[in-house]
Structure formats: C-alpha cells, structure tokens
Design a protein that fits this description.
It is a single chain. The protein is mainly alpha-helical. The protein has a domain at 2-82. It contains eight helices and no strands. The longest helix is centred in the first third of the chain and has 17 residues, at 12-28.
C-alpha cells in the first residue's frame, strides 16, 4: 500500500524502491515473489525515467510475459484509479480508504491543487 500511495503522489522512483524492498524481504525469508511484483517494480522505475505509461508498457513487453504486462497496464493506466482497481471492495468509499492508508496523499492533493489555482 505504501508503494501505491507514493505512486499516487507521483513519487515513481520511491514506489519502485518500496516494491524492491518488499521483494528483497520476501526472498530473505525464503519466499519467491510472483513475477508480477518484479514487473511492477520495473514499471515504477520506467515511469520515473520515461514519465509515459504507454512507452513503459511497450518496454516491459520486451522482457516479461504479456499476461503480467497486461495486468500492470490495466491497473496503472489511470494513476487516479489504482486503489479501486487493486482494492475493489473500497470502491464505494475510496476517499475514506485513501484518507486512512495514504493520509499524506490528501495533503499532497491540496498543495498541488493550490499551486495549480
């Protein structure tokens, strides 16, 4: 969840670091993470550099099975809907969910909104 909050704020590099840390901890404990998590980590890294979803997806297709890349594409194509797509049971009350698990994102939205005004 922490990685998703960082991604919502546009901190793609930090989101990638969080996912890689999660992968590393799993491996240290003898757990082999699903390939999907490696694809997500590389997606975040790609977004940090390229800042363009479609380009990153095309890049990932060169290295990973299409089913994993398509899953990443479906989840992350709209940055503002990544919470609902991964946690569909919160769809009715997404803002409360974000407030509980990503409280600094709401502050970030407020600051960015004021800058853009």
């Amino acid at each position: 969840m922490e990685a998703m909050c960082e991604f919502l704020k546009g901190n793609d590099k930090k989101a990638g670091s969080i996912i890689r840390r999660m992968i590393h901890i799993a491996e240290l404990n003898g757990i082999e993470p699903d390939i999907f998590y490696y694809v997500v980590a590389h997606y975040f890294d790609g977004m940090a550099v390229m800042q363009e979803h479609e380009r990153v997806i095309q890049y990932l297709k060169n290295y990973y099975d299409g089913k994993y890349v398509e899953r990443v594409n479906e989840i992350f194509i709209d940055r503002n809907k990544i919470i609902v797509k991964q946690y569909p049971n919160v769809a009715d009350d997404e803002q409360k969910f974000i407030a509980k698990y990503c409280p600094d994102f709401l502050a970030y939205q407020t600051i960015v909104g004021k800058r853009g005004a």
